[in-house]
C-alpha cells in the first residue's frame, strides 16, 4: 500500500507503469517541477533548488506520490499523487511535455482510478484543474469524469471533477485507442483464474508434467508466498506472472538484491499486444521500488516467444547460472535494474 494513499503500486496500464518514486528518479522529477509548461496552471516552474528538495523528499518518503514510467524502457515520464487535500480523495498528474498528446497520461489516470475504486468502492475520487487547462479537462472528460462545479483558488477559476465507481472502466480505451490492459496485484476474486490460465498455457506449450501442472494451477499459494500479478482486459484475466523477492520461498535462483520472475503466461488470443511486456515492466518497477539491482528468471529451451521478449527488454543470458530440474534444461536470463 502506498503510504498516505489507498493505491497498491505498481500498476501497469497500456504503455505505462505507475510506481512509487524511488532513489534515482530525482533528475526527472526536477525536470518536471522546473518546467514552465508543465506548471503553467500550477503557479509556474519552481526554482531548481526548491524542485530538487521536493524531488528528494518524494523519493525518500513517497507519501501518496507516484511516478509514471514507460513500460518499454522504464524512463520516468511524469508524476502524480493521490491524497486527501480538501476532504475527498483527490488525484493529480503531470507529464513531461515531450510525452504529451499520446494518451499516456490517460493510460496512467485510468489505472489509478480503477485501482482506487477496487480498494475503496464507496468513496469518490476527485480531480481539480484550472478551468483554462483545456488539455487536462479533455483528458478527464475523455475518461468519463463528471464536472462538478467551479470555484476560485490561487486567483483563478478551478473546475472540480468527480469520478464515481463505474464512471471509468478498465475496459474503456478512452481517447488513446490503445488496448486498455491493466496489470495489478491479484485479488481473491481473480486468483483462481490466474492459476487456471497459467496451467493451461504451460500445458498447451508442453511445459507441464502432472506435478508441475498442479503447482502452476495453485495460484493461491503463490499469492501468499510471493507477488502474484494479473493482466486484466475487459474484466478477464488474460495474463499473469509471479514475482519472488530475494530470500522468499519461490525464489529458486535469485541472489541477494535480485528478484525472480516466475510463471509468466499470457492467453493465446491476446498475444502480441504488449501484455507480456507490461507484466514484465511491472515486475521490474516493483524490483526498482524495492531497491534491488537485478531481475533473474529461468526459462526452457523452446520458449522462443519468451526469449525474444526477454532480449528486447535487456535481459541477457547468464550461462554460468543455467541449471537442470528433473529432465529439463533451464536457461537463466538476467537484467540489471539501473538506478536511474
Ligand atoms: C512469452 C509470452 C508471455 C509473451 O506474451 P505477449 O503478451 O505475447 O508478449 P508481448 O505482446 O509483449 O510481445 C510479443 C510480441 O508482440 C509484439 N508486440 C508487443 N506489443 C505490440 C503492439 N502493441 N503492437 C504490435 N506488436 C506488439 C512484440 O514486439 C513481440 O514480438 P515478437 O514475437 O517478434 O518478439 C507468451 O508468448 C506466453 O505466454 N508464452 C508461453 C509461456 C511462456 O513461454 N512463458 C515464459 C516462461 S519463462
TrEMBL record:
**Record-annotated N-acetyltransferase domain positions:** 16-166, 181-338
UniProt xrefs under Pfam families: Acetyltransf_1, Acetyltransf_3
Instruction: Indicate the secretion signal residues.
Output: none
Q: Mind telling me which InterPro entries this protein's record contains?
A: Acyl_CoA_acyltransferase (IPR016181), Bact_Acetyltransf (IPR050832), GNAT_dom (IPR000182)
Q: Does the keyword Disulfide bond apply?
A: no
Domain of life of the native organism: Bacteria
Gene3D superfamilies for this protein: 3.40.630.30
Q: List keywords of the entry alphabetically.
A: Acyltransferase, Transferase
Question: Per its UniProt record, what PANTHER family does this chain match?
Answer: AMINOALKYLPHOSPHONATE N-ACETYLTRANSFERASE-RELATED, AMINOALKYLPHOSPHONATE N-ACETYLTRANSFERASE-RELATED-RELATED
Q: What name has this protein been given in UniProt?
A: N-acetyltransferase domain-containing protein
